Amino acid sequence: MPRPRDTHGRRVLMRSDESVGTARKPVTPARKKVGRPSRLSQPAIVEAAQRIVDTEGDGSLSMRRLARELSITPMALYHHVRDRDQLLRLLLETKARHQPRPTLPDDPRERLTAAAQLLYDVLAECPFLGEILTSEELMNASSRWVTEAVLEAALGCGFSLEEAAALYRAVAHYTGGELLIRLTRERRLAHLDHPPYRSHAMAALQPQTHPRLTALADRWPALTARDTHEAGLEALLDGFFRTLDRSGPPSPAPS
User: Can you give the pTM of this predicted structure?
Assistant: First the structure.
């Protein structure tokens, strides 16, 4: 008996256990499943990373931890973010875009001082400070808008564009050094269960060999713990202004 055909004239497939002459419905090939559209994007990844930082601290953020937060594999995460450095850069750039921009003073010198101090204030509030201070890329990501403000203020004071760049570099190095020393000291003291070695070393000094240090020994911890960044910044800028006064009017900056 010939096999039945469908409406298009094609022979209908039959299972091996079908009785001859018994027509059955055609076997329809299974459709290929369409994968669920990816819900991953860089903004979603950054949002999840920020959530981890806010709830667990910046020390908890890793690519594996982030993958668990997103319920994906680490390999899936790497399709969107190259490595942890890129993740931190995206995180810091997002934070910088949402930071409020304070109004700076109108006086050129006061404006420059305020912009330079702003660099310290902005960086001090950033997560991953230790990594930022040792990476030019991350530092730029977190404070690029402050850099622009410092350069603009320096030009307003009469510095050339090249002099403004040198001034910013000095301010950034001074600020970075201050913050790195503070961060290192705070981390070290937080894990000590005994007086720091410095206290023992200062107590062991003799007036005959170290008269100035022994005179300050009792006050040394308090003196060195003071926040003197602003005073140091003023002194640094004073040096640049003295150089500007000696060199005379700069050539016009390119528009």
Answer: 0.72
